């Protein structure tokens, strides 16, 4: 965004949902007292907020971005109020927050599959990011192993779809190599 000084075809919603995901897992980590969850998600939330601010700076339609952000902040505030005021038992709060984080994480990991029909019809993976797919695979595998090590199903289970989705996307990259890669390989022969 800084290089082109525009947001081009970059969507804002993934930045926003990832920030909410980080903030949710940060809350879970704080409630559980898990330093790894706290540090990783605090850094993640900070970086996502910087990405969002950069997007806002270069976005021509700031009103839409601000409305989406305000709406999600409102949902976060409602969620925080619910967990603090209406779920007084620590164990119940931890279970419900873990379940919320898990569902939200699973929905984030499954979102690339929405482009599956388009990819197969066009035989092109241009709407996918290879580096993001690899990063998602590594992060999902790491969190799955961490959750397994802790015996925490709320951490382990929602990251398994991230592994599966990444493997499906990597298979699509292999099946439908990008046009530039094919042209380049033809020039070499």
TrEMBL record:
GO terms for molecular function: sugar transmembrane transporter activity. Keywords: Cell membrane, Golgi apparatus, Membrane, Repeat, Sugar transport, Transmembrane, Transmembrane helix, Transport. It comes from the Eukaryota. The chain crosses the membrane at residues 37-58, 65-85, 97-116, 128-148, 154-174. The keyword Signal does not apply. GO terms for cellular component: Golgi membrane; plasma membrane. It is found in: Cell membrane; Golgi apparatus membrane. It is a multi-pass membrane protein. Belongs to the SWEET sugar transporter family. Interacts with TRPV2; the interaction probably occurs intracellularly and depends on TRPV2 N-glycosylation. PANTHER family: RAG1-ACTIVATING PROTEIN 1 (PTHR10791), SUGAR TRANSPORTER SWEET1 (PTHR10791:SF30). This is Sugar transporter SWEET1. The gene is SLC50A1.
């Amino acid at each position: 965004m800084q290089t082109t000084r525009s947001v081009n075809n970059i969507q804002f919603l993934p930045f926003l949902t990832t920030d909410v995901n980080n903030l949710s897992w940060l809350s879970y980590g704080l409630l559980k007292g898990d330093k790894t969850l706290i540090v990783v998600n605090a850094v993640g939330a900070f970086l996502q907020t910087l990405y969002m601010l950069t997007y806002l700076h270069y976005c021509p339609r700031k009103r839409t971005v601000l409305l989406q952000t305000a709406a999600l902040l409102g949902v976060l505030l409602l969620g925080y109020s619910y967990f603090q005021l209406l779920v007084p038992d620590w164990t119940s709060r931890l279970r419900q927050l873990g379940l919320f984080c898990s569902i939200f994480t699973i929905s984030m990991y499954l979102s690339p599959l929405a482009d599956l029909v388009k990819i197969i019809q066009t035989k092109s993976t241009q709407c996918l990011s290879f580096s993001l797919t690899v990063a998602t695979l590594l992060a999902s595998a790491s969190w799955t192993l961490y959750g397994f090590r802790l015996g925490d199903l709320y951490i382990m289970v929602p990251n398994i779809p991230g592994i599966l989705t990444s493997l499906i996307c990597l298979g699509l990259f292999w099946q439908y190599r990008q046009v530039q890669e094919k042209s380049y390989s033809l020039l070499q022969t």
